[in-house]
Specification:
Layout: E1 2-7, H1 11-22, E2 27-30, E3 46-47, H2 59-75, E4 80-88, H3 96-108, E5 119-122, E6 138-147, H4 149-162, E7 166-168, E8 173-179, E9 182-187, E10 192-200, H5 206-212, E11 220-231, E12 239-243, E13 249-255, E14 259-263, E15 267-268, H6 280-291, E16 303-314, E17 328-333, E18 341-346, H7 352-363, H8 389-399, H9 405-415, H10 419-423, E19 435-437, E20 440-441, H11 442-451, H12 457-463, H13 473-486
Parallel strand pairs: 1-2, 1-10, 2-7, 4-12, 10-18
Antiparallel strand pairs: 3-6, 4-6, 5-6, 8-9, 9-10, 11-14, 11-15, 11-16, 12-13, 13-14, 17-18, 19-20
């Protein structure tokens, strides 16, 4: 019998599986699709405290998130890195004193930090002059971080697996039955798994899983967030955060070298949870929001791609979708000593690790959870870089001088020191196998299939990487054929 069955392969489920496996618990995680196939690959890709949450008095959430920002920088320096945000002051919106006070708090409530604090900035000077409208004279600059969200999920699942967890993608839990000392879970594979506890981390399907376990109270508010990927709109590595007239904010962030990421929206979601799509109204909203600030308008012709995700937020009866709490909430069903079903609602990518620790605290009242908290000091796969990321890249340049700097940086960012596992003693491109397109070769695909649970071109090109943005339709088809030919059992 397993100690814990985790249902859901997003960042929360993968984080809980990792933490539990590292404490010696027997863990199985099942995911009906791919890891990070839904909410956890559709974020704005930020590890941040959430500056706007201060207005909603979410001080606990902001404090925890800012502290976790430092932890994630330490344990995953390859997929998490600092980013400076520029916040223009718009005279018709929040007053300058309010922005200054908010940033003062933001700099201080998270405890010890390594990132530089906020400061005032002259928007008429480079790199902002000419990018922003002339009416915008002054603003502020502050620090947060970028994260490769779906890779964060995958790395947690990899580490869980290496610590003994059984990770099963494309495997759905289709029935749950409480038994005397635990649960019987029937899987889409036809197998039945026995577990002492079930963790419901199914994201938009949380209430469905809870009902399958006999809990029929609905706690979800599904809120859709959509993003635009457009041609690069400005030079430099800074990101912009723009205030909207409706009280919300909008980000414009450098993305994948050649693009700018614009987001996000807050729309009540109804429809097919497997396939959320941006609406014409959302597209117009995002374009209008950034065009209030950019000197050169972003047009529909600039849009290269879009994506949408569903936030499984805890229903707190807020009047607005943008003010529903982003904090996480646990609901545990274990009356009269029955085997526990722990449902995990809400949460942010930034706080997934603390969420996992708190989930195990909840379960400790119902099963033996030994060991101390450990995930805050253990690097995620690829993240062990004692001399820092820049020194690691410099060493990679010496080890692989035949590789172009852009490819080398991409691989270092994606795999960290795990890149050496599949590059090995290679001495040139010819050692990497067939070229699939761009700087993608068969050796990298084989690593993704054998070590990172990738089963399709979609897994490899849009979640393990964002190479789908850089390849032609024909090259993407080539990757699809490669999976079909090399791994026919995946089909």
């Amino acid at each position: 019998m397993q100690d814990i069955l985790v249902i859901g392969g997003g960042v929360n489920g993968a984080g809980i599986a990792r933490d539990a496996a590292g404490r010696g618990l027997a863990v199985t995680l099942v995911e009906k699709d791919d890891l990070a196939a839904h909410t956890s690959s559709a974020s704005t890709k930020l590890v941040h405290g959430g500056l706007r949450y201060l207005e909603q008095y979410e001080f606990r959430l902001v404090r925890e998130a800012l502290a976790e920002r430092e932890v994630l920088l330490r344990i995953a320096p390859h997929i998490v890195w600092p980013l400076r945000f520029v916040l223009p002051h718009d005279a018709g919106l929040r007053p300058r004193w309010m922005l200054r006070v908010g940033l003062f708090l933001y700099d201080r409530i998270g405890g010890k930090r390594t990132l530089p604090g906020s400061r005032g900035v002259d928007l008429s000077k480079p790199p902002h002059g000419g990018v922003l409208q002339d009416r915008l004279k002054r603003g502020f600059e502050y620090s947060d971080c970028w994260v490769e969200d779906s890779r964060l999920t995958v790395l947690n699942a990899m580490d869980a697996s290496e610590r003994g967890a059984d990770i099963r993608t494309r495997t759905e839990c289709i029935a749950l039955e409480r038994i005397a000392d635990g649960w019987h879970a029937t899987l889409s594979s036809g197998e039945t798994i026995a577990a002492r506890a079930v963790v419901n981390a199914a994201g938009p399907w949380m209430d469905d899983v809870a009902a399958m376990g006999g809990v029929n109270e609905a706690h979800l508010r599904l809120v859709k967030g959509s993003h635009l990927i457009v041609r690069r709109q400005f030079e430099g590595e800074q990101a912009y955060i723009f205030q909207n007239g409706d009280g919300r904010i909008c980000f414009a962030i450098p993305y994948e070298h050649d693009y700018t990421l614009i987001g996000t929206t807050d729309q009540l979601f109804e429809g097919d949870r497997n396939d959320p799509e941006i609406s014409a109204r959302e597209q117009t909203y995002l374009l209008d929001a950034v065009n209030e600030y950019f000197a050169d308008p972003v047009t529909p012709d600039d849009i290269v791609s879009t994506y949408s995700g569903i936030r499984p937020l805890y229903e707190d009866e807020s009047a607005s979708n943008s003010t529903v709490t982003r904090d996480y909430v646990f609901a545990i069903d274990a009356a009269d000593g029955a085997a526990p079903l722990l449902s995990v609602y809400g949460g942010k990518i930034t706080t997934y690790r603390r969420l996992a620790e708190h989930a195990l605290e909840k379960l400790a009242a119902h099963l033996t959870v030994s060991g101390e908290e450990w995930t805050g000091n253990a690097p995620l796969p690829g993240g062990r870089m004692p001399d820092g990321f820049d020194a690691f890249v410099a060493d990679a340049a010496r080890r692989y001088p035949w590789m172009g700097p852009r490819m080398r940086l991409r691989l270092a960012r994606a795999y960290g020191n795990r890149m050496h596992r599949w590059l090995g003693e290679t001495h040139g491109m010819a050692d990497l196998g067939a070229r699939m397109g761009g700087d993608l070769y068969a050796a990298e695909l084989a690593y993704l299939a054998e070590h990172e649970f990738a089963r399709t071109a979609q897994d490899a090109l849009w979640r393990r990487s964002k190479l789908g943005l850089h390849l032609t339709a024909g090259e993407i088809e080539r990757v699809e054929r490669w999976f079909q030919e090399q791994y026919p059992d995946f089909a």
